[in-house]
Each structure stands twice: as structure tokens, then as C-alpha cells.
């Protein structure tokens, strides 16, 4: 049983491990670690520990297991589901990995970087660039999210189509187990069939099985050719057909295929400084197509031109523009990445991070739209996302002039409605953000009991004392 | 405790599930299921069950758990490490998945095929081809190995460089647990972050955690361009440099980069009908380069020509030939795939299936060669393999005229020698064949106790009765 209080004596014992300067207890020091960026979670904690070495992490966890103290690992605290926030009303100790921020080794010949888990994603991208390599994980919060959090949530982002999500970008891990024992799985191997896949068990476990302290990440050649286009279309079905053609034509050179609705373009041009509609006429739907090629710049240009020509000829694309400079490419991606922030000035927004089989996207969206419009008169659906991955951020802005609190009060009801349709299409209620606290009970409700039972067995096997991030993913 | 005998009554209860026609007990019927193709394992079994449905598999496992009967799942029985062979002297029941051989669904738009685990790999390749798609897993035994075995061993093969191994090619699984409960994880999603990664736990578990009965596999566009070249080089170091250049130039269009020694070319031209040396002069080392492109045939041709020109100019490539027809492409691959069979007529061969970080291949091979030559005067080292994956089949043919039995008697000693060097380079003692019985004790000896302990915890959590393929991967 996890203890409900934390004695001053125990706080001192923890503080002795990190040194008092890195054991925060003052309310004002702790405050930033308690609140999640999106504002859904406000937790409580008597102590934030900022260890400076793997050894200190190990000692902290050993003491936590001995004393049955709940530990919440936290990286950049950029999550959306309450996975890295301490629970409300509990005495969770926050374990911040921020000081473990060293790049241990970078090998452009072997195409790997070995990094502490507290490294900020953008720092890893930069380190790769410095040796003429690409680390492809890219997402909105890359300037502050940490690689340990990316691993623990199996982060996706904008380059999944070509490079896969975090699971595919990781070769090896170093993990401190709840007992304080350290599993050194920092392998640099592309092939290694020696027993159970422990690595993939820790990836995506949201810190409930152990604390990731280091990782071996894959690097790639930097693409020589890069083209980004923005196209206006009549329907989601046409966007899907265009995606299929792009996928056949470009293979893994297709690095992005993002869907956006007219409403999203309206919101971003209205609210995000510097964003303008790149096309002269209005269209119901838009796609951003990103193509990267490794052999020569011309290949990407040729692919993009041929794809758009084919799309226009087939009547799928009504108008399109290809970015002519790096600045224009960035501007197109900036519009796409502003879809979510641009909803804020429009009032409350009920969000879904769902996936369905790619071929089911049009049918799923039509059905969900009808159900939502029936439930909320005047709802403004702004559904956009990674079409090529089947991952739609199905967001709903409140009706114009509606009461925000009353609208947001229907969050769970609308979630149930949309997720019900997602599940009928064999989809997922969390494509890339994870489970955390937000979807823990919902997951248990929608998944078969045997699946939840297997997960609970894994949890018990790895964390019998139940100290690791309790209350997240699975019931403690 | 697993029971040591199988009563006639219990055999009848099992036979009642499949029907007597599919419950083999006659010695001659059972014989083919007991011996592994490479001849290292000759097991014993009183009963081979050939269920015709998932429901029958479920009933068999429930009865096995109830009666503590050991079950050995078996696919095409093409393994190399004794993973699918029943143990010698035990009373293991073989569970053959061969009758579960239906392709349940194939969706060229969604790019997935859903198949029973007993489907032969070549049948899945054919089904994909019939809808103009590629299922890229390809290996020597594809005409008889089954997809369930490919999954259970996380098979690699010749297209890992571009498409990944089996783990990367699988989206979802259906698994019958030891209790007979069925986990339906047959998802078709590219992104799904909802709890622990059970799928990857079953993949590569060699049938020790449950029986895979079905899978959702990824399909890909069929490449439009395909080029295969064969080049003669001076050294492994030059081959590595050429690989790095190929990788930078071609990205994921580089679908194969295989290393072969002169000795292997001698063996294949000597023993394999129809194989001839494609180059006029002799070279110490050879690489087979395979490039596939999705946009246009010309892209592959352009890439290959540019790569070889660059290689020749840089003094890396001494001579090269590009296959001019599909027949020639097949002939080059046939030579590569004949490396292992061509060793047979040369007498005994001590084999290793190892991997090291790609950049460490030359140093590893130099060190291993020196150690082996010192240990066995006249040893003929025929090391070849998937250079781009860091995976070398480090095989040693006996000295000419040596006593085969005496040579093979040194298997373990030479394994220890080579694996010791592999481990110093951070490598793996089983890159793609798995652990089975062959490397079970060695794995326990070379891995940290905490890693073996975590694996044992997984085993106990999923198979508390210990009925699933006992004695394989981890100790029962």
C-alpha cells in the first residue's frame, strides 16, 4: 500500500540523495511541476527531486520502494493526458529528469546518438544536424519536451509516415527499475533476437514500470531534396485517394500527408500572426504534402510535380501551390501546427486524439460529424491531422456565443460519442497522446478484460510495490 | 510442475478436441515433427495435434493448463535453434498450426493482410502480389516457413534494411493464452498508444508466452524500379564505406546490402548448380547491392549507376556488374542465398548468427578471424550476411581433410570464442534466429541477472503453469 503522507524525516532522506539544492519543497518552487500545459490537471506534491545522475535515480527509487513512496517521473511536462502530473490530493514525489541532459555519444557512421533521457528533443535534433544527420522525431513542443517523455509516451508527431514513431526510432534503453536496479539495454543493434522485448515494454508505459534514464536513438541521412505543397480539395474521400496515389508513387519519400478543414484555415488566418491562406480560392478541405528524398533534390521536385499533376488531372485536386523556398515550406507547416492553438481564441474545445485504419477515415469522419452536429447544435468541428497515419485530432470548437463552461461540461459525453464510432471502425481512443489519468478508466471500459488483465500482470511483475506513477494507464 | 507422462486417457481428451484424424500418435506420423531441418535437434513426443480453428487451439491450451501438459507450438519447422522442436526425452505435445492457413482478409487500400498464423510465407507474398502490393519479408525458407513462426522468432531475412524485421511488419496479433483465453489484438492501426505493448512481447517470444493464431501484416506499394549489382572489393572496410555512401545516397531505397567472401563465391560456384562468378577477375570480398524505388524505374537505375561510379572513383569498388534482367537479378540473389547450403559439401561447419553495430563490422571480423585461425589451424571462414543490418552469419568450414566429428565437437568452444568478441563490440549472440534450446544457457550466462530476472517475471506472469514451450528461451 502506497503511503498517504510523507514525513519530514523521509523528505530529508530523499533530499540527502540529490543534495538539498535539488530537492524542492517550497510551494513556489514546486508549482511549475504540478500543472499540465493544457490545464486539465492540477496535482499536489510535497517534494520535487531533480537527480543529477543515474545513480541518484537508482537510490531514489530504492528508497521509494523501501518506504512505499509514490514516484511520478516527469520530463518536459508537455503531456496532454495527466501522465506526468502528480495526482490531486495525493503525496506523490515528482522525479524530474531535467538535469540528466547530456548527450553521451553521437556516431554518424553507426547512425546512432546515445542520450540521457532529460535531453530536450530540439537539442537532439541539433546534435544530429551538427554531424550531418537527421533525428526525425518532430512535434509542436520539441523546444521543451524531453526524449524520456517522448519514449514513455511513444511520441508520434509529423514524420511518422516515413520514419515511424518513437518506438521505431529507439534501438536501446537504460531503465532504473522500482527497486533501484538498473537495466542496461543500451544496445546499438538493428537486429537482436535474444529473448523478450523489454525495450518495447518500457516504451509507451508512461513511467509506470520504471524510469528511463538513457536511450540509443537512430539517426538518418539528411534528405537532399525537400518539397512541401498545399492543395485544396472537395472532400476527405478525395484526400484519401490522393494519399493512396502519393503513397504508391513516393513510398517512404512521402514524409508527411496532413489533412486540414476549411474551418482550421479560417481559424489560423484569423488568429495566428503571419499565417495567410496560400491559395486564392476557398476549398472545403486541404492537404499538406511533404516529400523528402535522399538521392537528389530533383527527385523530390519531380515526385511532387507529378503527384499534383496527376491529382489535378484526376479531379482530386482543385488548386495547389508548391513552396518555393525554405521560408515558404516553414510557413505551410506553421499553419498546420497552429491548428490547435488557433482554436483557443474561439472558446472551449473538446478534443480527441484518435486513429482508425487509414481507409476508414472518410466514413469515420462523416459518421462522427453527423453525430456531433446532432448532439450540439452549431458545433464547429475542426478535425485535422496525420491522415497518412490514420490519426485525426478530432477537435470540436464551441458554437459561436455558447457558454464555454457548459460546453466543456459535455467533454465526457462527446468523448463517449466519438470514441464509440472510433471503436466501431476498429480504431484507437488514443493514437499518440497516451492514457495517463485522462483515459485510464475509459481504456478499461473499452478493452477486453483479458487485455487489461495482461497489462495488470505486467505492472505487478515489474512494480510489485506499486510506487511507479500510480493511477496512470492501469489502476494501481 | 509439468507432468512427465501422458496417459492414454489424456491423449483421448486432446484428440477429442481436434478429432482423431488430426491427433497423430503413430511413430511414423509424428516423426517429421520431431526433427529440425538443420539436424541439431531430435525431440520426442507422444502426440501431435493439428487444430483446425482458433477455438480448438483455445480448448487444447485450456486442457493443457488444467493437466499441466507441455505444449510446443510449431509452424513450418524451419528454425535453427531448437525452438519449435519438442525436447528430447520429455512428453511434449506438438501443436502444429499448419491447418490454420487461411488468409482472412486482404485490403490493398488500407495496405494490410489479415492471416492465420499457419499461412506459409510464400502464400502471403503471392496474395499481396495478386492485389499489386508487396509483403517484403523474404528468406530462404519462405516456401515452407509459416507466418506464426516468423512472428514468434521476429524473422529478419533479406529486406530488413528498408522494411525492418517482422516486428516492424506486424500491426496486430491474435494470441491464445495458456489458459485458453483469446487476446484479440488484431488492430490495423499505425498509431495506437493505449497501454503496454503486448504485441511486441509475443513477437519474438518463440511460443513461450502463448500461441499466435492470427496477425495483421503491413503491405507496401510494389516498387517500380529494381536494380541489383554485384561488386568486387578489396576489404570489409571498403565494403563498409561503400555501404555508408549507398545508405546516404539511397535512403530507404537501399533494400539490400549483402557481404560475401571470396571463399563463399568459390563454394557456391563449385557446388550449386547454375551458379557462376559474374565477374571476370577474382576479388577478396563482394557485395550484393539491391535498390528498389517506388516512383519510377529510372530512379533506381540512376541511383545504382551513380553509386557504383562513385565507388569505383573512390577506389572502393574494383569491378562491378549490374543485372540486366529479372533472371540475372534472381541469379545474383540465388548465389547469396546459396552461401550456407554450399558449405555442406565442404564438410562440417560451425555457425554463428551474430550482430554488431554496423560500424564495428570490420574490426569485429578481423579480430574474430585471427582468434579462429589461431584456435583451428586451416579453418575456412565463410562469413557473409546482411552487412547493412550489422548481421553476419559467421560460419566456419572445417579444414580440408579434417575429421568432421572432431571439428564439430569444438562447436561450443568456438561459439564462446566468437561470441566473446561479439559481446565486447556490444553485439548480439543471436541476431535473427532466436534463442530456442541452442542458446538458452548461453544467454543466461552473458546477460545481466536483472535482464534474465525481468524475462522470468514476464514468463511467470503470462504462463504461471509453465506449459508453453518449456525449456526454450528462459529456464522453465
From TrEMBL, chains A, B:
Keywords: FAD, Flavoprotein
Gene Ontology biological-process annotations: respiratory electron transport chain
Cofactors (names): FAD
SUPFAM superfamilies to which the protein is assigned, alphabetical: FAD-binding/transporter-associated domain-like (SSF56176), FAD-linked oxidases, C-terminal domain (SSF55103)
Classification via PROSITE patterns: FAD_PCMH
Lineage: superkingdom: Bacteria
A matching Pfam family: FAD_binding_4
Residues covered by the FAD-binding PCMH-type domain: 41-222
UniProt-listed InterPro entries: FAD-bd_oxidored_4_C (IPR004113), FAD-bd_PCMH (IPR016166), FAD-bd_PCMH-like_sf (IPR036318), FAD-bd_PCMH_sub1 (IPR016167), FAD-bd_PCMH_sub2 (IPR016169), FAD-linked_Oxase-like_C (IPR016164), FAD-oxidored/transferase_4 (IPR051264), Oxid_FAD_bind_N (IPR006094)
Record GO terms (molecular function): catalytic activity; FAD binding
Family: Belongs to the FAD-binding oxidoreductase/transferase type 4 family.
UniProt name for this protein: 4-phosphoerythronate dehydrogenase (FAD-dependent)
